[in-house]
Design a protein that fits this description.
The protein is mostly helical. It has 3 domains: 110 residues, Serine Threonine Protein Phosphatase 5, Tetratricopeptide repeat, CATH 1.25.40; 87 residues, no CATH class; 53 residues, no CATH class. Helix content is 65%, strand content 4%. Strands 1-2 form a two-stranded antiparallel sheet. Strands 3-4 form a two-stranded antiparallel ribbon. Helix 15 packs antiparallel against helix 16.
Length: 330
């Protein structure tokens, strides 16, 4: 069980002695107990952990990496596999992120930063977690630290471009991406795009990057560039739904409803596309147009499409009584 695995690595790693009880964890249908892990050397345990990770047995890998923390390195000056405890905490954090266990990942990366306050990758990962949790202030602090350290590393290697030094393969790209998002949220779109353009030479085939560039242009009111970048993202990965939805939003803004509808239908059912267009139009204050799309969504799926009914009911109240109500986009 997930809660049992939480007890395992928190008690083993962080030292939460108040977490007691069962110490088993489910790994692909079987149960793994901390006591079941052979009392081998640190090197052997690391080898087992790496093997489990490579086979996508992430729960098992986490337990084994935690077990390695409790084992002392052998006397071999040149072991075949060697990881510091700081590296182990970071590895555990990455695996918890992969498993969707944000709180455990946050604790693991926090432990890394206790041991090594200037650990750029841990700063980046923790900053991204805070940003996802809408904790912009803490995210800003950590991501700025990571970028500052990276820029200092790069200073003597290449020439600066518009205040920044060109990035390389070692640069924490997620930190630059995260800080760009914060700039966009603050309305500093030029600063956001300056950071995103730094990333572009390193990952020229990243649909997320082009979508973020497009959305920054969209927020600036530059719909032509927004459309261009969303289409680039789709060309790279035709299944990347975020780019399709954002492209549809551009067409709604431009009043190109037929094209918006066809675009959204690439990644959602027709009734959802009608509802989303209606919702976008509500946000734009174009209520009469929104009413048509919401009614059409209900016609297509009257029995179960709750979202459109909620939006339409609130919209009619707003139109008839001038009441400002919440709408459903979920």
């Amino acid at each position: 069980m997930k809660s049992d695995r939480i007890k395992n690595w928190l008690s083993a790693i962080i030292g939460f002695t108040f977490l007691v009880g069962c110490t088993t964890t489910t790994t692909g249908g079987s149960q793994l107990n901390f006591s079941d892990v052979p009392p081998d050397s640190r090197e052997t345990t690391l080898s087992q952990a790496i093997s489990a990770e490579q086979n996508s047995q992430y729960d098992k890998a986490i337990v084994l990496y935690a077990k390695a923390l409790k084992l002392q390195p052998n006397d071999d000056d040149n072991p075949a596999i060697s990881m510091t405890n700081t590296a182990l905490f970071y590895k555990i954090g990455l695996l918890e992120v992969k498993q969707g266990n944000t709180e455990l990942a946050r604790k693991a990366f926090g432990q890394v930063l206790k041991d090594e306050p200037a650990h750029v990758l841990a700063q980046t990962q923790l900053g991204v977690i805070y940003l996802a949790q809408k904790n912009k202030q803490d995210a800003l602090v950590l991501l700025t630290k990571a970028i500052t350290t990276d820029q200092q590393r790069l200073t003597n290697q290449v020439k600066p471009v518009k205040g920044y030094v060109k990035l390389d393969e070692q640069s924490p790209l997620q930190a630059y991406m995260g800080l760009a998002i914060i700039h966009d949220l603050k309305g500093a779109h030029k600063q956001a795009r300056a950071l995103l353009n730094l990333i572009l030479p390193i990952t020229p085939q990243d649909p997320i990057l082009f979508t973020n560039i497009g959305y920054s242009h969209y927020l600036s009111g530059n719909y032509v560039e927004a459309e261009i970048n969303f289409k680039k993202a789709i060309d790279i990965d035709i299944r990347f739904s975020k780019a399709w939805v954002d492209l549809g939003l551009v067409y709604v803004r431009k009043g190109m409803y037929s094209r918006a509808l066809q675009t959204l239908k690439q990644v959602m059912p027709t009734e959802h596309a009608y509802n989303d267009i209606g919702y976008f139009l509500i946000l734009e204050g174009r209520y009469r147009e929104a009413e048509y799309f919401l009614e059409r969504a209900i016609e297509l799926s009257p029995s179960y499409f709750v979202k459109a009914n909620i939006n339409l009911e609130n919209l009619k109240l707003h139109l008839n009584k001038d009441i400002d109500l919440a709408y459903s986009d979920k």
